[in-house]
Amino acid sequence: xxxxxxxxxxxxxxxxxxxxxxxxxxxxxxxxxxxxxxxxxxxxxxxxxxxxxxxxxxxxxxxxxxxxxxxxxxxxxxxxxxxxxxxxxxxxxxxxxxxxxxxxxxxxxxxxxxxxxxxxxxxxxxxxxxxxxxxxxxxxxxxxxxxxxxxxxxxxxxxxxxxxxxxxxxxxxxxxxxxxxxxxxxxxxxxxxxxxxxxxxxxxxxxxxxxxxxxxxxxxxxxxxxxxxxxxxxxxxxxxxxxxxxxxxxxxxxxxxxxxxxxxxxxxxxxxxxxxxxxxxxxxxxxxxxxxxxxxxxxxxxxxxxxxxx
Length: 310
Prior knowledge:
By secondary structure, this protein is of the alpha+beta class. Helix content is 64%, strand content 11%. The protein has helices spanning 19-39, 46-49, 65-73, 102-116, 130-158, 161-185, 191-221, 227-259, 265-292, 305-308; strands at residues 43-44, 51-58, 80-84, 90-96, 120-128, 188-189. Helix 5 (130-158) packs parallel to helix 7, helix 7 runs antiparallel to helix 8 (227-259) and helix 7 packs parallel to helix 9.
């Protein structure tokens, strides 16, 4: 007997009945995310914009961010971001790329060192040039696209084509909504954000495959059941596993967000969002798409076209 039971073994939740609300909601949120990406844009970090990143730690008490900003603003370095980074003594300084090539970027470091003097200890200094940042942006985009194509091929071979389309649509839904989150909150979008998106893709796919496996199994066992009823049965049968997996993952991520420090905070926040969205899309996006694409118990998709409109 299990001591912890978050979800009863025999649930009868009508998930497919809710699809008339969740599918339009998902479509609206996806469109809104794309609009935000095009209009507002992403807050690209130094990985993609190029420039200098300097992490310092004050020697005498908590950092005075306002005073430090006033000191460095007079150097004529252009766009300058200064923020507390982890503890009250830690400060992260970002300086936009300067015209003049690598020598100009080195001059930025020299000017900052001269302005701040011996009041701080330098923990990290990074310089990213425009060629490197453009290459990183290109390879990051390619990585996401290749991952989605690989998902399409994998699911197509493992299941029927309806499952492949459903998994890809659900994955794109998760990626688009995550990018929308970065756009609306203006979170720093860097290489760790790409890593977060790829991790979200893997998590969402894993959850979707679990649901799809049960749907396929039940489709072979109950050939006379209506598709919505069969999908509801399958989701309810896997609901306990889905909830427990998502909850344990979220517990670990929340702990990392609270105690992991500023370095990984944006990555972990994106992951928390991705787990929630990935769980949602496995139930309310990937599964209903099978119904709309005419999946039928017994594998005769064509004969289900009339039933798909019900």
